[in-house]
Amino acid sequence: MSAGDKLKNVVQKTVGKAEEAVGKKTDDAELTAQGRKDQVMGEQRQNVEKAKDATPGH
């Protein structure tokens, strides 16, 4: 996994955590859901990159 991809995934997860926290504080269900979605997407992308790295020939 390239450093840029890893950084983007970490940033997306971090932004998602912040969105979720703000959504909970402001009782904004949509923002809370978007934050959770961003966290999951960041984690999934990170897992895909790890799988690519583990594949022989990459």
Number of helices: 2
Element string (H = helix, E = strand): HH
Percent range for β-strand residues: under 5%
Look at the structure and give the mean pLDDT: 92
- Residue share in helix: over 70%
pLDDT < 50 stretches: none
Q: Termini, distance in Å?
A: 10 Å
Rg, nearest Å: 14 Å
Overall strand count = 0
The description of the largest β-sheet is:
none
Shape: elongated
Question: Which class best fits the helix and strand makeup?
Answer: mainly alpha
List the defining traits of the structure above.
mainly alpha, 2 helices
Question: What is shown here, in short?
Answer:
The protein is an all-alpha fold. The chain has helices spanning 3-25, 29-54. The mean pLDDT is 92.
SSE topology sketch:
Blueprint: H1 3-25, H2 29-54
Helix pairs in contact: 1-2
What does this structure look like?
The structure is a single chain. Helix 1 (3-25) packs antiparallel against helix 2 (29-54). It is built from 2 helices and no strands. The chain is mostly helical and 58 residues long. It is 84% helix and 0% strand.
